[in-house]
Write a structure and sequence with these properties.
This protein is mainly α and 306 residues long. It has helices at residues 3-19, 45-64, 82-95, 108-117, 123-127, 139-145, 148-161, 179-188, 211-222, 226-230, 237-250, 254-260, 266-282, 284-303; strands at residues 23-29, 34-39, 79-80, 175-176. A hairpin with a 4-residue loop joins β1 and β2 (34-39).
């Protein structure tokens, strides 16, 4: 992987974060893997990771003239107790680059210089406001320690003390938290012993906007007839916008969106959303139309009790 591959990785990651409404608190790209510290408020981790991996793998294989899987096996995910472990996980992630491979035997001073100058990590934005990335949300973690200077001290303290990985004794449960947190999650949200992608996770996230509100907002913003959105074989920009907004703000799956838009298959919904994104990159008018609807829906969410 070279810097062009890493740059494309960031571009694709940014697009996926926006599409699936995922909040990224920290990240780091390694030589042959990566780590993300993300908050999936809509319990859509599987969809987010699947689409991101498919899109990036397709681009990478095309560029390098190869085919097949880019990664070995399924990604590993952990549900993290923010109060107890979020800070520790962010430090482990940011120090991963200098604690592995050729840098692990370097002096403290060398490791710190390498870590803070590494381009493909969110650490630089955590210690310098001039280096922030717009797709990373720094506020939550910085608020836990009292700002960038305190976070820098937190990182360097961990380097000097050789702090162990927070995952060291938690490799199989998929939950990282204190005993009370683990017990509560297992009792309330896990049905069959797996923490991943449980429907009950939707109890942990914010409420969604009713689908009828979203559809009416699209109709009003785009000045179109509601029948245009519900006509089975229609393929207009408005249907693509409606599909995207129902996914983002309605908390619906693509199959559920298909039922609302004339009973189409989930794959047709995905194509509507994908084609919309392609059109927006080529047509400023369509991009502005999408932005208008998005802004109106966000305004609606702030004014409606849901």
């Amino acid at each position: 992987m070279d810097d062009n591959d890493r740059h494309r990785f960031i571009v694709q990651l940014t697009e996926s974060l926006d599409t699936y409404q995922v909040v990224l608190h920290a990240y780091i790209l390694m030589h042959n893997h990566f780590h993300l510290l993300a908050q999936t408020r809509r319990a859509n981790l599987a969809e987010f990771m699947r689409r991101f991996n498919i899109c990036y793998t397709g681009w990478f294989n095309y560029r390098h003239g190869q085919c097949g899987h880019l990664y070995q096996g399924r990604y590993k995910s952990f549900l993290v107790d923010a109060e107890s472990y979020l800070l520790e996980v962010s430090r482990y992630l940011h120090l991963n680059y200098v604690r592995r491979g050729k840098f692990k035997s370097e002096s403290f001073a060398s490791q710190w210089q390498i870590a803070r100058e590494y381009r493909w990590s969110s650490l630089r934005g955590y210690i310098s406001k001039r280096m922030i990335n717009t797709f990373v949300d720094y506020d939550l973690i910085l608020s836990m320690v009292g700002g960038r200077r305190a976070y820098q001290n937190f990182i360097t303290d961990g380097m000097m003390d050789k702090t162990k990985s927070p995952f060291e004794n938690n490799l199989h449960s998929g939950i990282l938290g204190n005993d009370d947190f683990v017990a509560r999650v297992r009792k309330e949200y896990i049905k069959q012993g797996s923490v991943r992608d449980q429907p009950a996770y939707r109890n942990l996230i914010t409420k969604n906007l009713p689908p009828e509100f979203i559809i009416q907002c699209v109709v009003d913003s785009c000045k179109c007839d509601v029948l245009v959105l519900q006509k089975r074989r229609a393929a207009g920009v408005e249907r693509g916008i409606a599909s995207e907004m129902l996914y983002r703000y309605g908390g619906l799956t693509e199959r559920e969106i298909g039922d609302l838009l004339g009973g189409i298959d989930y794959s047709a919904v995905h194509k509507l959303r994908w084609r919309l994104k392609v059109k927006m990159t080529r047509d400023k008018k369509i991009e502005n139309q999408f932005s208008k609807v998005n802004k109106n829906i966000q305004k609606l969410m702030s004014n409606v009790e849901i």
